[in-house]
Amino acid sequence: MAETVATLEHPPAGPARPKLAVRDLVVTRRTASGEVITATDRLSFEVAAGEFVCLLGPSGSGKTLLLNVLAGLEVPTSGEALVDGRPITGPAPDRAVLFQEPSLFPWLSVRGNVEVALEFVGVPAPERRDRAQRWLANVHLERWADAQPHELSAGMRQRAALARALAADPDVLLGDEPFGALDAQARELLQQELQRVWAESDSRKTFLFVTHNVREAALLADRVLVMSAAPGRLLEEFRIHAPRPRSLDDVLVGRVVSEIHDLLMREVDASVAREMAR
Amino acid sequence: MVDASRSTADEQLSELSLTEEEKLVLAKVADILRKIQFGTVVLVVQDGKVVQVEMAEKFRLR
Fold first, then answer.
1. B1 near A CB under 8 A
2. A14 CB burial (10 A radius; 0-12, 13-18, 19+)
C-alpha cells in the first residue's frame, strides 16, 4: 500500500509553475477560396514541469496547429503561448518535436543523425559520440548505429528520431502523432519504450503529445485533454493516477478509454449535426 | 438504508472487525471519494491483499 499512496499524489492537482501555458489562444486559417476558418477558439491550458499530457480530438480540431504554435513554427492569431512564463517567439532547443514522419537526414548514419542534433545544441565533439551511443542503446538501436535510415524499419526510424530528440536533453518533448504511421506492433513497442524512457529520465521531462488515438492517450498520459471538433475547444479533462508501465489491459486504462471514446463519438455526432444544419 | 432488519453502518463495521490493513485501504478509498466528483477508482488485489489503488478523475471544461 505504501508506494501506491505516493503514486496517487502525482501528478499535482494544479500546475504551480507551468512549463507550458496557452492562454485564450486563437488560430485562424484562410482557405484557398478566401474563407477564414477558426482552428482553435480561445483555448487555455497549462502543462506542469515533468507532466505527460496528451491532447486528443477529432481531426480538424486544431491539434497540430496548436502543437506548431508551442514548437514556435506557427504564430497565433491572438492569445499567447508561453514556455517558463516567456512568450514563444520561435523554435528553440528547449523544445524538441517528434513528427509523424521521422525526419532523419538520409545521408547520415543513425548515429550521425543523433550526433548532428548534439552539435546543433553545442555539445563538444568528444562528448557527442558517447551521448549518441547511450541514447541509441536506450532505444535498443546500438547495433544499428552505423546503418543508414533507409535500412531501418519504420518503427526503428521512429525510435532513432526519439533518441535524437531526447539526446539533446530538451526540457519539453512535443509529439505530433509520433506513432501514427506505425503498424500496431511497432506502435505498442514504442509506447512501452517511451513510458520507460520517460519514467527513467533523471529529471522528468515535460511531454505534450497530440493524437487521435484514445488508447495511446490513456496509456501514456498523466492528463488527457479532450478537444471538440473545429473550432477546437476543451471539452473534458481526465487525470489518470496509475503507476507505469501501464498496459492496455489495465482495468482503469480500459475504463478511461471507453469514457473518452463515448465522449468523442457524441462530439463527432454533434458536429455532423451542426454541419447539416448550416 | 431505512431497512429495519439491517444494522447501522457502525454495527456492520464492528461485526467485520477489520484488520489494520483493511482499515488503511478503506481510509485511502474514503480519502479519494472526498476528493473527486466524477471518476473511477480501481483496487488491484493480489493474493488477497490490495496492492494498488488507481484512479482516474474527470472534469468538465466546457
1. no
2. exposed
d(Cα A166, Cα A58) in Å, to the nearest integer?
A: 28
Q: How many domains does chain B have?
A: 1
CA A123 to chain centre: 25
What residues in A contact B40, CB-CB < 8 Å? 252, 255-256, 259
CATH homologous superfamily for A2-94+170-277?
P-loop containing nucleotide triphosphate hydrolases (3.40.50.300)
Strand partners, B18: none
Its domain, for residue B34, covers 18-57
> CA-to-CA distance for A180 and A192, rounded, in angstroms?
15
Q: Using CB atoms, which residue from A235, A237, A243 is nearest to B52?
A: A243
The alpha carbon dihedral of A143, A194, A243, A71 has a sign of positive
**Is A1–B51 a contact, with Cβ atoms under 8 angstroms apart?**
yes
The reported pTM is 0.88
Contact A250 B21 (CB under 8 A): no
- Report yes or no: A101 at the B interface, CB cutoff 8 Å: no
**Which regions in chain A score pLDDT beneath 70?**
1-16, 202
Per-residue pLDDT tens digits for A190-223: 898 888 888 877 678 899 999 989 999 999 999 9
Structure confidence by residue, pLDDT tens digits, A106-131: 999 999 999 999 999 999 999 999 99
Q: Is the pLDDT of residue B1 over 60?
A: no
Give the start-to-end residue ranges of the domains of chain A.
Answer: 2-94+170-277
